Amino acid sequence: MIRRIPLGLLLCSLLSGGGGLVAQDSATLIGRVMDQETRSPVQGAFVALMDEAGVRTAAVLSDATGRFVLRAPAPGTYRLRVERIGTESVLTEFFTVTPGQVVTRDVATRAAAVALEGMEVTGDARCELDREEGSATVRLWEEARKALEVAEWVDEAGYIYETRTYRRRMDERARRVLEEEAELGTRVGKGAFRSLDADRLVQDGFIQRDGDQQVYYAPDAATLLSDAFLATHCFRAVRDDGRLGLEFEPAPGRRTSEIRGTLWFADDGSLDHLEYRYLELLSERDARLGGEIYLTLLEEGAWIVQAWRIRMPLYEATESASGDRWNRRLVGIHEVGGEVRTARRAHSIDAVFSARTGAVRGEARSEGGDEPLAGAQVFLSGTSYAAITAEDGTFLLEGVTPGEYALVLDHPAVAEMGELSVGTTVDVQADSLVAVRVAIPARREILVRRCDSRDLVALTEPDYRDPGEPSVVGGVVVDEEGEAVREWPVRVRWTRFDPDVAGRIEEQWRAVVVVSGSRGAWVVCGLPADVYITVETADRRLSRDELEAGRGSWGDGQGVGRFWGGEVVWVEARAGG
C-alpha cells in the first residue's frame, strides 16, 4: 500500500510597498550627506529618523546630490541615523521638532569599508551580539544589518518589479526538472517573498502543520532583524573556500523545527546572499532542501532581493509488511522561486535595476556527434531556462542569470542510456554568449558506459572464459508503439557447442535475467567468448519472487549471433516476446 504525503508550501513576496497620509502637524527635515574628508555628496546613504525609544519612524535614501527629505510623524524629540555600506554609521545628537517646522541637518560620514582580507575568524559562536563589540562576528553582522534594514525598508517604499516566477517538480537528487510552470508578472512593492511574522516563526518553527499538510517557511529581512530571531540564534564568522560568511544556528535547547544558514559576503565586503537549510532534514539524502536568497545593491543605494528559491521534499510513504508502521522515502523535490528582471520606483518609467543576463547558444548532435539532433529539450538543470532544438540541432537560451549551470540534453534517444545523462557545464557571464556543443554518444559507447553486470555473468558460468575485451549486449525494451517499457524482464542466453569425449557436439547454454530500468534500458556485460547469443523477453511482468525462482515464460527471442570476444551489440527488444 502506497500513500502520498501531501505537502503545503508558502511562496509569498519579499519586497513590499506602502504609503500614507502626511499629518498636518508633522515637521519636515532636510539635509545633505557629505563625505567628511572630500566634502563630496554621498548617494545612497540610508537616513533614518529615530525617536527617543530607538524606533525608526521614517527613512529615505540620499539622492545623487546627497540630499534627503524626511517628515517627522509628530512633534517630539528625534535624531538621525545615517548608514551606508563602506562607511561608518553616524548617529546625530537629539533635536526637537514642532508642528510645521522645517529643520535642516547635514551629516558628514567617513569611509570605513570592511576589509575581508585577513579578518580573523575564531569559529566561536556569539549568542549575544550586543556584548561582543569589535569581533569579526559583530563586524560582519553590522554590515549585514545595514543591507537587511534597507531591504526591509524597500518593502515599504512602493517599488515596481517585473518578475519571473516558477514552480517545478524535480527528481530526488535535484538534477532533472520533471515538471515546471513559469510566469512573468508585475508586482507593486512585493518582489520576492514575505515570510510569516518573526514571533510566530520563533514560537512555532519554520516547518508547521496545516491540517494534513506541512508548510515550509523561509526567513526574510524582517525575520533576521527581529529581536525574537536574534534572541534565539547564535552567530559565528566562518570562511569557506575563500569566502567569508556569517553563520547562524538555533541557540541550545530549541525544540521547534529550525533552520541553519549562512549570510555570505562579496569580495567588497557587502552582503551577497543567504542560504539556509531545515535542520530536521539535514541528512545526506536531503541536504539540498532549504533555500537561497540573493540580494543586489542598486546604484541609488537600495537593496533588493533579486533572486530566490525554496526547495521542499516530496515524500512517498509505504506501509511495512507487518502493517505497524510507515516508511517514508524521498521521491522528489518541489522547488518554488523566481527573479526580479527589472525594478523601478513608483510613478517613474526609468528602471533603477535591470538584470544583466547572458545567453547560451549551442548545437545538439546524435550518433556520436555525426547527425544533428532535432526536437530535443535542452535545459539548465535546476532552472526554468529551456529550449527545443531546431531541425539543424541548434538552440538558444536567452536572459540567463549569470552563474555556473549544468546544461542537460533530453530526448527519446537519451532513454537508451538508462540512468546516464547527456550534458555539460556552462559558465554564463553577464552580457556574454556561451557557445556549447552536446552530443549523444554512439550506441557502442553507451553500452560500454553502462556495463555493471560482469560479475553476474562470471558467477553464472563457473568455467567463465574472460574474452579480454568487454563483450556487451544491451538496448531498450519497447512496446508495439515503440515507447520504452520499464521494469520488463530480459533474458540473455548464450550457447556453446562443445565436442564430448566421443566427438559428438553437445549444446550447453546458460543465461542471466535483467530488468529494464525506469527508461526501458538494459545491459549485460562481460559475456564469455566463442558463444552464440539470444535475447528473449518475458511474456509479462514478473514479480521479484518469480524472478528469483526462475519462473516465467519467454518469447522466441532474437538471435544476436556468435560472440568471439570484444563485441558490443545493440538490441531493441519487444516487450511480451
Parts with pLDDT < 50 across at least 5 consecutive residues: 1-23
Structural class: mainly beta
Global mean pLDDT: 80
Oligomer: single chain
Strand share of the residues? Answer: over 45%
Q: DSSP helix count?
A: 7
Report Rg.
32 Å
Shape category: elongated
The largest sheet, given as strand count, sense and whether it forms a barrel, is: 11 strands, antiparallel
- Residues in helix, %: under 10%
Overall number of strands: 37
Number of domains: 4
Gap between N and C termini: 30 Å
Describe the overall structure:
By secondary structure, this protein is mainly beta. The protein folds into 4 domains: about 1-15 and about 155-355, no CATH class; about 25-110, Immunoglobulin-like (Sandwich); about 360-440, Sandwich (Immunoglobulin-like); about 445-575, Immunoglobulin-like. Helices cover about 10% and strands about 45% of the residues. The strands form 8 sheets. Strands 1, 11, 12, 15, 16, 17, 18, 19, 20, 21 and 22 form an 11-stranded antiparallel beta sheet that branches. Strands 3, 4, 6, 7 and 8 form a 5-stranded antiparallel beta sheet that branches. The longest helix is centred in the first third of the chain and has 19 residues, at about 135-155. It is elongated, with a radius of gyration of 32 Å. The model is unreliable at about 1-25 (pLDDT under 50).
